[in-house]
Amino acid sequence: MRPDAIYDRPDLYDRIVTPGPCEPFYRGLAAETGGPVLELACGTGRLTIPLAADGHEVVGVDLSPAMLDAAAGKARRAGAKVAFVCGDMERFALGRRFRLVLVSCNSLAHLRSNAAVLSCLARIRDHLAPGGRLAFDVVQPDLRALAACAGRGGRPARTWLPPGAPAVEERTTYDPVEQVRVSHWSLCRPDGSREPLRRLALRQFFPNEIPLLLGAAGLRLVARYGDFEGNPLGPGSANQVCVAAAGAG
């Protein structure tokens, strides 16, 4: 899996993406399972550093050296001890097992093919300690929004960052055959100049797919929620928050 250009801009990434309500959920789960904890696609350490501050042994894996450099700097400033590893979540091999493996903030959606998803899940299974858990969250597909941006041209949108910072202009398209939503990002600076940031392509996981994909990789769904408060998954849920374990369902 190759990193999108936005992941070479950790300063911009931290302005756009925040841990939000997922942080208490994952910290609470880690308190239940204990460490060691592995986070895949750890980015700039938004979860790894708080988990380490909670006293857990934490390893963070990410494909982007720039993101890992930013994460290491943040960890040093926070006095948190985290082992950061540059690696691909489809192919990582750490030679050890973990009580908890996390893939947060819709990061699994970067794996756009079934083969890529199954490769990642199989690697996770092989890194789970006996009784260990996998926890991840993915977006619940919004059919109306996807229909609005399907076809040629897509749907334009603009997200403004804090005053004086570049704005991010986004145009979104959706391929219903591949189940991939693509956001085309550009930086719009206050002086009027623009910098393309390529595209961000994310798979859409429909609810019935998840147990099948987990089962094909030797995992089973233990729990699934519609938000980080533990409410049931329903038609209006924005997220699918999943907990899985090794073994047949």
Automatic annotation (TrEMBL):
Q: Where is the Methyltransferase domain?
A: 37-132
Give the UniProt keywords, A-Z: Methyltransferase, Transferase
GO BP term, example:
methylation
Gene3D superfamilies registered for this protein in UniProt: Vaccinia Virus protein VP39 (3.40.50.150)
Q: Which GO terms describe its molecular function?
A: methyltransferase activity
Q: Which Pfam families match?
A: Methyltransf_25
Q: Which InterPro entries match?
A: Methyltransf_25 (IPR041698), SAM-dependent_MTases_sf (IPR029063)
Q: Which domain of life is it from?
A: Bacteria
Protein name (record): Class I SAM-dependent methyltransferase
Q: Which organism is it from?
A: Propylenella binzhouense
